[in-house]
Design brief:
alpha/beta; Rossmann fold; five-stranded parallel beta sheet; about 15% strand; elongated
Amino acid sequence: MLPVALDLAGRPVTVIGAGAVGARKVAQLLEVGAVVTVIAEEVRTPLPSGVASLLVRRYRPGDLEGAFLVVAATGDPEVDDAIVAESSARGQLLNVVDDPARCSFYFTALHRDGDVVVSVSTAGASPALAAWVRDRIAASLPSGLGALARSLSAARAARHRAGTSTEGLAWREWIDAWAAGEPLEPGEPPNGTRERGVVVGPVTLGDDAVLEGRRERGHG
């Protein structure tokens, strides 16, 4: 499997099934702006607000027309067989809950901090293990990464507006210094030479320094 990030904003997605798992998938899809249609014989778990269409009935062939991505969360092997057949014929991205062999994509365990997203997958083998790994990675990260990403984006955009290249700049050193607790001026452009700490060339702080910086920032 190739890990990728999909832009689902405004794209039509169909979820068949409205139990606990189906409702959770609907929430994940709505969070990223997908236009979600839900088809279920019974809504066993309350769905989050924002669902574009809810059809309370059994799945029928043809229901997947127009969907960019499909999630089968019915728990009914016969219905899932029909969904897999139609989705395959239409060339759609498909996730069949608890049946990784018939999935063309998997949901991953996510940690978000603004635009910074950590995604962990076990290729469908164990969602619980993926969540376990995700939680431990998240616990090791400093808070504020989303704000840092915005600052880096602004610095890059300023360089581009000025007509200068951002290639070869000391981005990693800028991030290491932030992780070590150094105060950085908003919009300070990394250029390989900084007065504070005098970062010249490819100097990277070691793990101990980063950890100590995290302690000083109140993260451990």
